[in-house]
């Protein structure tokens, strides 16, 4: 059986082998020039999951807007697992306020939404030295149209099934990985 010859031993790493940094080291470390905006995300588990993903990719800032809950909260912590403590965040009454503030800080802001004129995620190209922000919307209604109207562009994940929607935290994971891949790994 030829496949047996190619088999190799794989061992999961133990936590102590992963060389994880502390929250203090994370706070002091250089961050990805990327911000995340959560526009009326109602599930605290989704909020926590986004924080955890932002920690994984060293995202600079999370903007929590409207009805989006803020830390500390046990349901956020349940999925963030401490990401809410390491990643910087700010609250804004509306996502439009967050977008306007981010643009004033030099960020190019992209709504992640299915919309006319959107850029398919695989065609997006991050420009070296540019700061970006991505806006993720409510689980049912998506990004508010008023927010879309003031964004610099729209990103869309191509989908091929019957639903044409994904959970907001899954969407965030896909988009943030692609942004990180382009901004850090430059591949």
Structural descriptors:
7-stranded parallel beta sheet; 7 strands; 187 residues; alpha/beta
Can you walk through the features of this model?
It is a single chain. With 187 residues, the chain is α/β, with parallel strands linked by helices. It is built from eight helices and seven strands, in the order H-H-E-H-E-H-H-E-H-E-E-E-H-E-H. It is globular. It starts with a helix and ends with a helix. The mean pLDDT is 95.
Topology diagram in text:
Layout: H1 2-6, H2 23-28, E1 32-39, H3 44-56, E2 59-65, H4 74-80, H5 83-86, E3 89-92, H6 95-104, E4 107-112, E5 119-120, E6 131-137, H7 145-150, E7 153-156, H8 168-185
Parallel strand pairs: 1-2, 1-6, 2-3, 4-6, 4-7, 5-7
Helix pairs in contact: 3-4, 3-8
Compact summary:
The chain is an alpha/beta fold and 187 residues long.
Give, in order, the helices and strands: HHEHEHHEHEEEHEH
Net shape: globular
Strand content: 15-25%
**Biggest β-sheet, characterized?**
7 strands, parallel
Structural class: alpha/beta
Give unreliable regions as ranges. none
Task: Please report the distance between the alpha carbons of the first and last residues.
Answer: 37 Å
Give Rg in angstroms: 18 Å
Total DSSP helices:
8
Percent of residues in helices comes to 25-40%
β-strand number = 7
Whole-number mean pLDDT: 95
Strand ordering within the main sheet: 3-2-1-6-4-7-5
């Amino acid at each position: 059986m030829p496949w047996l010859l190619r088999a190799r031993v794989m061992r999961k790493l133990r936590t102590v082998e992963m060389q994880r940094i502390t929250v203090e080291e994370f706070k002091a470390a250089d961050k990805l020039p990327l911000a995340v905006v959560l526009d009326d995300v109602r599930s605290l588990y989704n909020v926590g999951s986004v924080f955890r993903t932002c920690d994984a990719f060293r995202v600079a800032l999370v903007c929590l807007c409207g009805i989006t809950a803020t830390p500390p909260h046990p349901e956020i912590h349940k999925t963030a697992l401490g990401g809410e403590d390491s990643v910087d965040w700010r609250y804004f009454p509306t996502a439009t306020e967050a977008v306007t503030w981010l643009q004033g800080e030099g960020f190019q802001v992209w709504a992640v939404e299915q919309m006319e004129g959107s850029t398919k995620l695989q065609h997006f190209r991050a420009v070296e030295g540019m700061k970006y922000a991505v806006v993720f919307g409510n689980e049912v209604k998506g990004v508010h149209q008023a927010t879309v109207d003031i964004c610099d562009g729209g990103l869309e994940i191509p989908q091929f099934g019957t639903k044409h929607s994904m959970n907001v935290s899954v969407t965030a994971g896909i988009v943030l990985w692609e942004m990180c891949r382009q901004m850090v790994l430059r591949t």
